[in-house]
Amino acid sequence: MSGPNFLTITEQVAVYLRGEIMQARWIGTMPGMNHLAPELEVNAKTVEAALRLLEAEGILVSQGAGRPRRIELPPGKKARASMKIAILTYSVQVRQLDYMLKIQHRLAKAGHHAFFPAQSLTELGMDN
Asked: Fewer CB within 10 A of the end CB, N or C, for the chain?
């Protein structure tokens, strides 16, 4: 029996970036490590190592020092654009209803980011 197989932080970042690429967050070229590191709250060297892992997989192609990496999806793979969807409800209590949670989960399963804004329509004064 072997122990659990934990991913390193570099591998976790690579998994996240791969997923974002497949969701068409970036098209054409990839942002560099100095842009991604603050967003991911990791060291720039960790991001650079993750980008090199994606290069080794063939998802990214280096274009030389100081130039953005080109995104190359494997043959037969097509990026699917995801949407960020705010579900506005009449009141905060409606958010906990079974059908609202099912809607949120179905959207997430389809690859979209569904969320409830901080305020309801009532709290925003749109209850007329």
From this structure: N
Question: Is the per-residue pLDDT at 35 higher than 90?
Answer: yes
CB atoms within 10 A of CB 37: 17
94-122 burial code (b ≥16 CB/10 A, e <16)? beeeeeeeeebeebeeeebebebeeebee
Confidence of residue 12 (pLDDT cuts 50, 70, 90): very high
Q: Find the distance separating the first CA and the last CA of the chain, reported in whole Å.
A: 63
* Nearest Cα to Cα of residue 33 among 70, 69, 81: 69
pLDDT of residue 8: 93
Q: How far is CA 74 from CA 10, 60, 63, 81, in A?
A: 21, 10, 18, 16
Q: Is the pLDDT of residue 103 over 70?
A: yes
38 pLDDT exceeds 80?
yes
User: And the tokens for 93?
Assistant: 């209590």
Q: Residue 51 — φ and ψ, nearest 5°?
A: -65, -35
86 in helix, strand or coil?
strand
